Amino acid sequence: MIGLELYLGVSAVLFVIGVLGVLIRKNAIVVFMCVELMLSAVNISLVAFSASMGDVHGMILVFFVLCVAAAEACVGLAIVIAIYRNNITADISKINLLRW
Amino acid sequence: MAEFVWLIVVIPLIGFLINGLLGLSSEGYRKQKSVIGWLATFAVFVPFLIAFQIFLEMNAGSEPVVVRLFTWIEAGSFTSDIAYRVDQLSILMALVVTGVGTLIHIYSMGYMKTDEGFYKFFAYLNLFIFAMLNLVMANNLLLLFLGWEGVGVCSYLLIGFWYKDMEKATAANKAFIYNRVGDFAFLVAMFLVFRTVGSLDFDVIFSNLHLFNGDIAFWVAVLMFIGATGKSAQIPLFVWLPDAMAGPTPVSALIHAATMVTSGIYLITRFSGLYMTSPEAMLLVAVIGGLTAIVAATIALTQYDIKKVLAYSTVSQLGFMFLALGSGGFVAAMFHVVTHAFFKACLFLGSGSVIHAMHHVEHELEHEGKHVHFDPQDMRNMGGLKEYMPSTYKTFLISTFAIAGIPVFSGFFSKDEILAYLFNAGLGEFGAVYYALWGLAVLTAFLTAFYMFRLTLTTFHGTFKLPGKFKGAENAAKYLHESPASMTAPLWILAALALVGGFMGVPEFFVTTFTSTDATVNWLYAWLSGVTVRAAIILPYGVKWTLVAIAIVVAVGATILAYRMYDNDKGEATDAAIRERFGSLYATWEDKYKFDEAYEAMIIRPGNRLADRVLAVFDVKILDGFVNAIGSIVQFFGSLLRFVQTGVINTYAIAFVVGVILIIGLLIF
Amino acid sequence: MEIINDLLLFLPATIVAIGGLTVMMLDGYKARSRTIYTTTMVFLGIALGVASWDLLMQAPELIFSDMAGAGGTAAFGTFIVVFGTFFTVILTHDYLIGVKHNFPQVYPLLMFCTFGMIVLATANDLVTVFVGLETMSVCLYALAGIIRDKRLGVESALKYFVMGAFSTGFFLYGITLLYGATGSTSLPEIGAYTDGGLIYWGGVSLLLVAFMFKVSAVPFHMWTPDVYTGSPTTITAYMSTAGKTASFVALVLILDRAMPFIATELTATFSIIALLTMILGNAVAMVQDNVKRMLAYSSIAHVGYLFVGLAAGSVAGYSAVLFYLLAYTFMNVGAFGVVAYYEKNHDVHFNNVESYAGLGYQRPIMGVLLSIFLFSLAGIPISAGFNAKYLVFSAGIEAGLVSLVVVGVLASAASAYYYLRVMVYLYFREGKESVSLIEPKKVYSFSLVFLALLTLYFGVVPGGVTEMIYGYFSDSMLTATAP
Amino acid sequence: MLEAYLPIFVLLGIALFLAIVLAILSRVIGPYRPSATKLRPYESGMDPVGDAKERYSISFYMVAMEFIVFDLEIIFIYPWAVRYKELGLGTFFAVMVFILILTLGLIYTLKKESKNFQISKSTN
């Protein structure tokens, strides 16, 4: 039997990797993938908690998370396409017209 | 009648709305200048009549009447009403505000006759009266603060009335910003009062004064005083008032001499009970007042702009009032507020009349085809005006006698009482300081009489100097003429009041010494005794009479000295001689003690320089000279923070994660 | 049936949702833009009417198996959101025609976004909070970049999207940890849990972080100036009023229901955030030459004042926050409305403050309106802004946060500088070239006048509303005056 | 409570350390040769080039979005379908409303982007 701690640990590791990805990567699509990784990491925790407590609310929340992730994916892809068409780059470090 | 007190406040507001809205919307209405003017005047005169009626129905022993209109803010335990308070103090202030206000409205009809923004001017004036009445009639601190901010906004609008003139717009901003510094202190004082008493209503505060233990009383008193230094132009926040003379002269007379600037004195008098519990705060008030009085008086000595002299004289007289407050003479301060309103308004309006005439001369010369450009406010261009403007001269002279403290004129009584209180305070705690302040005050009184006669004599006596000074102005004298009746009538009324106004507060010992029975000739003292606390005068008769004698000698001496030095066109020669004699001291006075420069050097410029240097890196254009004391410091840090805002998402995410660590750190550990 | 009853109590949201779908289908079948706009206004008008009715009549109640609330704070939040949207749509229609980008997609997006905001403001369960927050955010990402060929707009959409999704990750982690610690997602049940522990506090902090991001508190504010500057001006007004209101109402609900017993422990954190936000927001606003960006930083500064109310951790503080949101909605929609009007008459660089020179006399009514809104934002008395600030600060004083309030008052005194600066340009500077402003549409100026009147009205008599808001917290677990 | 979760935080620490080290290592050791191809949104997809003011040729990811729409439907409908008898009429209507909304969305996309679908058909 794998303990709750291990699930939470894996989830935490994935989450931190996702956060670091957002901090470091420059390609908008990759940054976006890292955000999705964060959401998935949280899902692992949610399911683990839910299973260990025998309560379904956590699992239901996972559905909503997936749903939201998908919606964000749609909007996100559209925005990335638009930014690429406007700037001919998806490198977020070069997209800095707005500052100060 | 007291229940109709709300009408006093509301009628000026209605006047403002009618003139403002009709003027904004209808081109035709703007041309109906007499309609606009009289409407605005009646919007102040009717409240005066109501206030007078209420005044007649009251006596010295009347209980305060509070008229609650509706609840303004209500949240849980905190409520604040729109409520007006009718008591001896508020009705006195209301009478001064509406009375002097009415006269100045009448005067303005003549003075502003040819101005494009006629309707706007009168709408603003009405709005100012409305705000000022809220200030003096309010029954709680929040409503008082509303009026306090309101008069600030109106003064901002009126100083910058001729907005096309950049200098005037800057002066308006300066006034507003220096006032905000004071307002901030006032607001904090208000919060402290609320925290201590749990209410902002005057009734509740005054009946719970015992809750203010030592430290809180001191801090509330000091913070309120800082608020007062902003509004009433005391050191260190006084620099805005002389610049505020950029506004039209009636505005200077109404706002910057008679009413708004005295609101600080009103506030402290209102809270006299609180101040009496904190001798340290009283001492601070007195010291600041004394320093301001002498500093402003010496600056006034060196000025040539007729309005600037009056402005510094106002600052100096306000200092006198704070001296009175600081030594426990709250009634004496109010007395001086009232008499000062009479003679200073008269002086300002008289100077306005002179400037009006000088402008007319310039205009007519222009008409003749001679382009002579001179400063119509510079008294070195004047002289000998008494023959051309007899009414203006006579009223100006009466008011000068009053401000100089020549016996029987109103200023004599009020100034004498202030000196008596100062000397009296010397017997109590911090006695030595008060004696020193008394000496300073006597010196200031001497200077006051001196520079005021310097002004009057240079302007009205001798010969008209303009023809000799400017080419093409040889026949300028024939265009000099007296101002219209709408301008001279208010002058005469104010001069009459300046002449007899002092008799409302004849010191009792004038009578008791001779009759050796109790007498109540000091009407003002009796009238205000119920609403203010005041220190008791414990000086023996001999000392009192000696003080009176000193005051008379000083005033008369200064007058005679000034007459000998400045009559018969000796003005400029004398000034040169004085400059010679006092050397660098005189230069300091002339530079206004370099207050403006100090603010500039210590706060504004370093801020600018640093901001410039930082911003130059990014080639960002810095604000165009429009900077102020608080602004620049904060601006500097602001521009530093721009480094962080790089525009790159990764940076933002890093800041986010730093924030997360901060929050987790704060909450878990 | 219970669900029918619930839907009736949830009527504003239901109407907005049906309206959104209708407008979307109209767009799909290529209806004229005018028709779409009119339909939107009809639905929003009805929703606003129902929301006002709820605001005045509806007693607090829980609906949808305790997932959401009706009446009380929920009705209040719904009202502000729908009110803000109603005026945003009027302004947006005119603005988008003015800048020649009248996309009909804006209207369904605005409606869906509003639906999300209502769900957020009425939530009683973390799942509902999550769904509402995300519905709102996803629509806002799209709205920020609605003008697809404007580089600034798309850039701001990208920044908003990446940062928003990033914060969603933290938000979810927070919910998960709270769920793990307390075993529930319902706000009152979480509130009943008092054991603490590392997981619990981790959850609380991450949850608060996400909300601080959404309301743009320092240091989570970085996206705000960029997004507010780049988005279409009226959409910025919408984000900063309706969006912020919904988030703040949800935050107040969470603090009141889910964390009443740790309010005192949160005070220090909120105080620090409030301090940072007030100082940074005001300081940076001062150096801005772009009016829109200045208003963005000023909106950050206002969040700082609001956090003073949250830091108070008392009923007085929370109700002051709600009143502040109402006042802020009036004056900020108004201010952005006038800015949008000036902007659509010119190119984008027009938002520079120098190009405002002398405009006050061009269309006097617009100049006067902007002055009223700016005065109110600066917190000068007889404006709603002053009362709002006053209530927040007095709540802070009552809770003993004297030094924080002193900084707040000082900061708001300093803020007069940059608001005043705009007015100096409007009135005291001569315009360089002769710009001529076209006359605003009747409905446009009428809406702005109405907002200005409300701003002044709540400056003179806020009494009734403040008392009503206070009543919402009558059964709060908080003590009336905390520590 | 605290001790029970200690391993997690130890693990979290290790994860953080490892993640940072790996990220830095990959930066230091790994070759970074950015090329135009790598920086494009899709390394192996349709190349979205053209003027921004043109209509988007979005057929590539349109399909992906349509897929997601139905994907979501399944997620919520599957549990309901398994237990729909127990869940009763109210839930039935709720799910029907859910499907209706999705269908409206589908109709909208079809109406709006029908042209793109045709193009994608012809190009595929």
Please, could you describe this protein's structure?
- The complex is a heterotetramer of chains A (100), B (669), C (483) and D (124).
- Chain A is mainly α and 100 residues long.
- Chain A is 78% helix and 0% strand.
- Chain A has helices at residues 4-24, 28-53, 57-87.
- Chain A is elongated and about 50 Å long.
- A two-stranded antiparallel sheet of chain B has the order 1-2.
- Chain B is globular.
- Mean pLDDT of chain B is 82; it is low at 611-630.
- The longest helix of chain D is centred in the last third of the chain and has 40 residues, at 84-123.
- Chain D is built from 4 helices and no strands.
- Chain D is flat, with a radius of gyration of 24 Å.
- Chain D has one domain.
- The interface between B and C is large, with 70 and 82 residues.
Low-confidence stretches of chain C: none
End-to-end C-alpha gap of chain D = 59 Å
Mean pLDDT of chain D: 72
Radius of gyration of CA atoms of chain D, rounded to a whole number:
24 Å
The run of helices and strands of chain D is HHHH
Number of helices of chain D: 4
Helix content of chain D: over 70%
Helical stretch count of chain C? Answer: 19
> What is the molecular shape of chain D?
flat
Give the total of beta strands of chain C. 2
User: What number of structural domains do the residues of chain D give?
Assistant: 1
The radius of gyration of chain C is: 21 Å
Cα shape of chain C: globular
Largest interface: B-C, 70 and 82 residues
* Main sheet characteristics of chain D: none
Strand content of chain D: under 5%
Order of helices and strands of chain C: HHHEEHHHHHHHHHHHHHHHH
Pfam family, one (chain A): Oxidored_q2
InterPro entries (chain A): NADH_UbQ_OxRdtase_chain4L/K, NUOK/Mnh_C1-like
Membrane topology (chain A): Multi-pass membrane protein
GO molecular function (chain A): NADH dehydrogenase (quinone) (non-electrogenic) activity; quinone binding
